[in-house]
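Hello forum,

I keep getting stuck at the same step: I have a sequence, I want structure tokens, and every attempt I make locally crashes halfway through. Rather than fight my setup again tonight, could one of you with a working pipeline run this one for me? It's a single chain of 451 residues.
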Amino acid sequence: MSVAVLLLLGLGLLEAEGRCFFNRTQEHCVCYSLSQESLSSIIQCLPASVVEFRGGELERYVAFPIRDLEPSTIEMLGSLVIRKIIFGDLLVPEILLARVLRFFSYTQVQELVFESCIFEGRSNWDEMAGRDLPILSLQFHNVTSAPLMGREQDFSSLSSWLETLQELAVAGSHVTSLPCSIGRVFTALRSLDVAQNSLGDESLMPAFCKGAFPQLQVLSLQRNNLTSYHSVCEGVQLLRELQHLDLSQNKLMADPSSSCQWPASLRIFNLSDTGLEEVLTPLPPSLEVLDMSCNHLHAVDTSLSSLKKLFLSQNMLQAAPSIRNYPMLDTLHLDNNLITELPWDEVKLLGYLWDVAAAGNPYNCSCSGAEGLQALAGMGHLGQGWPQDYTCHSPPRYQGRLVKDVPVSVLQCNSAAVIAPVCVALALLGMAGAVYMVRSRPGLIRPCRRV
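Reply #2:
Ran it on my machine without issues. Output:
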């Protein structure tokens, strides 16, 4: 049993004394710095669906003998319910990983995660050639390893498995390039996360070359070294299945004459915190979700007929964008801008949306400013921020007061709406009185005499 557990958990033999802690409610087990002496505590992790190993070094076990498993051991591994294994804060010899990874083919583990690990050395992956693994999601966060360039043979040996992988994350790991040949191995990959790396504009076209990542739908390039909106567009043009692109936390600049066309499949576009002072063009034509929050936009004057969700919080907008430009819109977020009021004609249109957020703006709580917000709140569209995050900035008598507490009466705020009907009513009464007098005293009106 102990040999099987060792293989399953990636040789979790660490140099310091440690223990495992099992949360039965969450089916989550965490092991800290296990040693051969404390190995028995791993047994309590066997009912878990998620197992973590934290801390230690594995290089002393590079020469540990690993033999082929007996049929009874293989059957036992297949019966375990562990679906996800996390390795954190470890020094991992690559040669040891190569020897152990093949045994995952006997398990039901679908997700493998490495966090804050250092991969040491290079290994021969020939033993993995033609071997399938059940792992569909592979994640590396804040790891250090040998560069990807020149490792085509390694990826070729792993191709039987990598061709079935659906999710891959290599985040915060100093990646500067993705070789074209490696991308062509991931024929079934749906999601690629390369956030918080050092990818530049010039690295995208080679990475997403013809035939690379043919099924990719979700791509995160968040917080890299991207600067050219046009270059990014050209770099991902060949990703015909791309639906979700995250470019947030890059410092993007507009190009004077960009005619690049984004993939027609793109539906979700994240341009938040990219230093935008104006809306970049062209935008993908079939967008359904557009996030341009945390920028320096003063105005948004675009027209997207299929857009459903628009996020513009934390900009410098002085007015809400015209809802008429987005006939399919159901969500609009305008928190923390410079908007002083929502005009009544826009409020009527906003009332058709499901989710409106406009907290943290310096509202003018004169009649029109307060009335529109109170009307939206009455329709139930202002969400969790209402009423505590909607305060008046002016006029002075209402400064600091919650918008909901501002008195809004018809007589005070729309005197024309009261005076006009009153005048009409008085006029009608006058006419009715005159008619009554004529009918009750016919002698009052005499026919003209002819001379």
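The mean pLDDT is 85. If your local run keeps crashing, start a new thread with the error log.
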